[in-house]
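Researcher: I need the complex structure. Ligand is zinc ion. Inputs:
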Amino acid sequence: MISVIRKPIPATLQGNQATWTESLCVARKAFYDAEAAWEAGGRLGAKPRKTTAADAKNAWYGHPDIRKVLEEEMFHHKCAYCEGSVKGHSHLHIEHFRPQSIYPALAYEWHNLLLACGVCNCKPYKEDRFPVGPSAALAEPNRPNPCEGNQAEMVVLVNPCVDDPAEFFVWKFEASPAGKEVTPALLAKQGNLRGSQTITVCGLDRVNLTENYRRQIGLVDTALSLHKMAVTFSQEETRIEALESLRKFISPQGIYSAMVRAYLKYQNFDLGQLTQNLQS
Ligand SMILES: [Zn+2]
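Model: Output:
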């Protein structure tokens, strides 16, 4: 996970946010009221069903204008949590950091929208999970008025647009006995609770992801070897080419860039020669 700077709210969202939120909250309240009446009446007849209007509309919060800012300008087609590529995935998710099923008032709130891959954001990982600190009152909140904001609560999950992930996570690399293969692992920094909960809830240590991390390291190793060879044999053009390739790996557009940065440090590679002119 890397730190991401949030861009200004897209005009489409700004112009429609209030109407969309109200429409959702009215439908949500109608559902709660019908359910309460059904319970008060001795649960006679069929239990009221939640209508589609009582859930946030993907067509609204996933509007092309909103999607464009999230995908292209903020997250560079990468998942906010695992930094894997979401390019070309049919199940690209506009992610509600606070799930809309629990926080309907934030369903169309710009600061609550992220981009996530279909693995981090689905069962058995994040989906609708949103752990909060011990003093917080988490609820399917505010049934009488779903549009009312929630109480202040201690957020547990690390948010790349709010927190600095470097304060919560650390990468560890373990070389195989022959030294040929390196296995990376994402850990919570000094056992940090928010870091470890985020790893668990988003599945950032899942087997498939570790395989992807390892594959990326293989590509980085190729560029590192090329660089080393170019330095040894004073091949300036090749050296610059290798540096350019390494620079791409750690740019905000590079997948798993936080891991690659940590890996280059692990290999005692001087990152200073790559960080010039890099956009963050
Ligand atoms: Zn992901």
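Model: Summary of the prediction. The chain has two domains: 1-157, 168-273.
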